[in-house]
Amino acid sequence: MDSTIIRLDPYHRIGEVDPRIFGGFLEHLGRAVYEGLYDPKNIHADEQGFRKDVLSALAPMQYTAMRYPGGNFASGYHWMNGIGAREKRPVVQDLAWQSIETNQVGTDEFVHLSRRMNWTPMMTINLGTGTPEEARNWVEYCNSPAGTLHANMRVANGFVEPYNLTLWCLGNEMDGPWQLGHVPADQYAILAQQAAKLMKDTDPRIELVACGSCTPDLPTYMEWDRVVLEYLGPLADYISLHRYVGNPNGGTSDFLAVTNSIDRQIEEMDAVCRYVQARTRSNKRAFLCFDEWNVWYRAREAEHTNGRGAFAPHLLEEEYNLEDALVVAGFLNSFIRHADVVKIANLAQIVNVIAPILTRGNELLLQTIYYPFLMYAPRRAGTALKPVINGPGYDSPMYGHVDYVDTSAILGDAELHVFLVNRSIDSSAPVEIHFEHAKFSGLKSAEILTGPSAQARNTFEQPRQITSQKFEIVEVEDGVARFEMPTLSLVALTLSFT
Ligand code: AHR
Questions:
Q1: What distance in Å separates the CA atoms of residue 419 and residue 476, rounded to the nearest whole number?
Q2: Number of other CB atoms surrounding residue 233 within 10 Å
Q3: Which protein residue has the closest C-alpha to ligand 1 atom 4?
Q4: What backbone torsions phi and psi does residue 376 show, to the nearest 5 degrees?
Q5: What is the pLDDT of residues 166-182, one digit of tens each?
Q6: Distance (Å, rounded) from C-alpha 295 to C-alpha 347?
Q7: pTM
Q8: 176 Cα nearest atom in ligand 1
């Protein structure tokens, strides 16, 4: 393959990278909360019932914003069921996933876990079966000082100081016919406006995420977003978008080109935000919150999504391979390339349910998609630069023309971070990185993720087939960085410059 020449210029800046684009998502779904994180009888459980081994595996991923408690679950959730003495909390039916919810984990447990893990809680209110008043009561419970009804409940539960949670989602996927309480856009907009006003009246510091289109496949795509944004006006700080991708036909090249359509989805959503801002002559524009994204296509049928009345059933337990990890890196590259508009993004989800970490009894497995986060997390601070790529590419039947090497870059403090995916299924990719107005002086660090085939994955029996490794063959000469990326690989590197 011919060389791919990447030119980066410190003056060609896209925008500051918001650390919240490296967020996660924890839903009361399957074995995510119960068994995955909270399992008091497990040998790894700490005194609060959380699995120490899972928390230790999550820590290096350095998630920022953590969305909770759903997802579809949120649209039937009543937060008051999840507070107070555990033995008095009701056991209820969760209609979203046809499961049993014991409410043993609720707001207080989640907030305290978030503090331990350095996550920023991102709460999703129930606009499916809940009311705007229930939502504002939740804000009062979390954020108001002692002295009023719901704040006093928090105090009575042992937490005197307000939690000051400033990021709230106005429901979940309300455009989806599967959603509990799904309604047309104008009806959702009215409900969301009522909730938003009551919530901001309770605590003006909060930021709100309106439900946008949860997939480009719905017929309401874009029109839903226009209606919602126009109606909510300045009450919407962000609009959400979701995306789950898959490779049901086994075409790796095509699948890896999906980044084109992620870029496109972001740009379309940004276009509707700008359109509404222009139409309403507003000084305020809504930014994008990509609050669910991942690869998810194997565990989608009823046997994987219907809990059949069980507690902590095995649901959405997707097993990930190398190509999935490269697609996850493609999502992250796309968010970085759109740092000016994408301010929050949440990998769905964090454990057992479409997750980088799987548990089996007392065991724990790191799936392939764990590693991109490990490689990006220490390199995420700074300003996204616009990469100019000259190199070979290919035509994907589904997504159009792409470069073989998908790239993003972040200018840090006296260092440059570059993330590259070689999508070629049969050829290594020689790469040169040039830095305009400066010369690279050396390589600070580099890692690679690759494997024997696109389908290779980690299993409980062979857990270390695919792991990130040191990448030592980067040459820095005459101010230019040169290396050869193996077939189907992700490289993350940090270069110093003068
Ligand atoms: O993340 C799994 C589910 O996918 C979420 O509950 C829902 O919002 C989406 O459809």
A1: 17
A2: 15
A3: 71
A4: -85, -35
A5: 999 999 999 999 999 99
A6: 10
A7: 0.98
A8: 10
